[in-house]
């Protein structure tokens, strides 16, 4: 019987891309891979549909299945987490039917879901299929997430709620941090539906049969050690954690970049004409974050005054409408502004790229690390502030763009940090440290490397549970 793993990656680009890297490695190890997707129309962001289309076109060995929408797409203006969890829950019956219809009894070795789709474990448990989480962030964030429900419960009994967002929270194995660096909603409105749903989702991660983390041990050693310590989750059993990264966009585990992407995108052609290590690359994530117009103008002035070359992704339909008058003309030749998707991993690996201004999403951090490019941190949401703390402190591969009390990163700060990264001894030290981590990332998937060994352990665990006779569809 053919061994098949079903991937259920949800509908966030930053979760989908690492899952497709996982698909490629599973195929290399002799598994058939089926990707079950709630109709991409569920997410009104065109970036997700485009990412799915690129993956389907470039991975003919992977079978993609569309699960028809139930009750329409994400509700505009609704809270994202509640929206997401609700959509996954109301597609459980159709996911259940897909698994029963598409595979014979015992035909699925495992199901891997993204970290916000743990509601789907109700289906896998019903059918007797092992269920794993693909955790697309790092070991420190995973450690914080699995501890957060109990830390939150303890904090509720010891502190006033209004003090919690700025109060340091203690986690085993990672430095204390303000609650606002993770999920502010847990502490701003502790009795809300948002809080209850988030806590339930975080608990669900630790109830998986195993967790695949998109990191590698040498980058995340203290947090990896913490996850293996019983004190991390007292009174409960932590499932096995397999650090199998780095899975990054545009690059297979073997390190081959997408030549098709390189040939197609204008920004790569532009980079070919720039000197080595001369360009500052600014990109704030696949979610298409738009800065306020005032902030865009401050960035533009800072870049112009720095005198350095730049490639800047400005996700606005009309960049001329938000950029300072004459900016594009004055910086013509040394700067390029693009408004659409760029092959970020390929941009970072280009010899012309010197510094990466990033929102600190973990996929972007890994792409910077594997390219050996130092970073300037501009965290925006989710766990990005925790990532920033570690990048600046423990890893020493970045410095922070500091906002004013009004929340604006001013032009002078942009200019100062660009010059620091490009011109100073501190900038050279950042590059030295990130290149060391780049080498660690390369070794992780070599024969005998930590990520390759972790992946083999994961496959051994899957095979020890297979074949499992699927139960009938009772309990739907």
In words, what does this structure look like?
By secondary structure, the chain is of the alpha/beta class. The chain has two domains: 4-250 and 445-464, Glycogen Phosphorylase B (Rossmann fold); 259-441, 3-Layer(aba) Sandwich (Rossmann fold), CATH 3.40.50.2000. The protein is built from 20 helices and 15 strands. The protein has helices at residues 13-28, 46-58, 80-90, 92-102, 121-127, 139-158, 185-188, 193-205, 221-227, 259-264, 266-272, 293-306, 319-322, 327-330, 344-349, 362-371, 384-392, 411-423, 425-444, 450-464, and strands at 4-8, 32-38, 63-67, 110-114, 131-135, 168-171, 174-178, 210-213, 241-243, 279-283, 309-313, 335-338, 353-358, 375-377, 398-400. The strands form three sheets. Strands 3-2-1-4-5-8-9 form a seven-stranded parallel sheet, with helices on both faces. A six-stranded parallel sheet has the order 12-11-10-13-14-15, with helices on both faces. Strand 6 (168-171) and strand 7 form a beta hairpin. The longest helix has 20 residues, at 139-158. Mean pLDDT is 89; it is low at 251-263 and 470-476.
